[in-house]
DNA sequence: GCCAACGTTGGC
DNA sequence: GCCAACGTTGGC
């Protein structure tokens, strides 16, 4: 299994929204690098740090789990959607999405504190100019962020 | 609101 | 294939 970090703007879709929905598709990824990782590497059971961006309290706010692997993002074919892509061919969809399930909230781990941690200096999140909306997280980084939130390491939510 | 950094587009 | 112009991201 693998660990990930996924960014979302809480004004549009927050960890609270995900909790209410329990399971949600993760639509609107329109970056090839992020898409390729999601398509080729993201598997059911992978755990995800949910990160709030472009808001007052930027940082990691909770955990989700991948529960449905890559499938076409139908919003690319909806002219009414913000994520509409007129160049995408319905017979060969350009963009995909996964489904994620809410697992838990964490106390905010602010970006500023993540940046201050030497163990986390290699995260794409804190690399200058990196705007990836989905990025891999190593097990050590995962454990470090959880520890910063006061959370014991978690490897899975299976009973 | 500012602006740096990056990705995408399109003319040539 | 180059590269300037433009749009977007996202912290501050």
Automatic annotation (TrEMBL):
<feature type="domain" description="EVE">
    <location>
        <begin position="2"/>
        <end position="148"/>
    </location>
</feature>
<dbReference type="InterPro" id="IPR002740">
    <property type="entry name" value="EVE_domain"/>
</dbReference>
<dbReference type="InterPro" id="IPR052181">
    <property type="entry name" value="5hmC_binding"/>
</dbReference>
<dbReference type="Pfam" id="PF01878">
    <property type="entry name" value="EVE"/>
</dbReference>
<keyword id="KW-0597">Phosphoprotein</keyword>
<dbReference type="InterPro" id="IPR015947">
    <property type="entry name" value="PUA-like_sf"/>
</dbReference>
<dbReference type="InterPro" id="IPR047197">
    <property type="entry name" value="THYN1-like_EVE"/>
</dbReference>
<protein>
    <submittedName>
        <fullName>EVE domain-containing protein</fullName>
    </submittedName>
</protein>
């Amino acid at each position: 299994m693998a660990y990930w970090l996924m960014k979302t703007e809480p004004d549009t879709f927050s960890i609270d929204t995900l909790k209410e929905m329990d399971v949600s598709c993760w639509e609107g990824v329109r970056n090839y690098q992020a898409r390729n990782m999601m398509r080729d590497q993201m598997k059911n059971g992978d755990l995800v740090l949910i990160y709030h961006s472009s808001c007052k309290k930027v940082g990691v706010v909770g955990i989700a789990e991948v529960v449905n692997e890559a499938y076409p993002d139908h919003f690319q074919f909806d002219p009414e959607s913000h994520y509409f892509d007129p160049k995408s061919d319905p017979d060969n969809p350009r963009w995909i999405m996964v489904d994620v399930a809410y697992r838990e909230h964490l106390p905010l781990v602010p970006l500023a504190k993540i940046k201050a941690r030497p163990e986390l200096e290699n995260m794409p999140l804190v690399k200058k100019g990196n705007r990836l909306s989905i990025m891999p997280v190593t097990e050590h980084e995962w454990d470090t962020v959880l520890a910063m939130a006061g959370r014991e390491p978690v490897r899975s939510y299976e009973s």
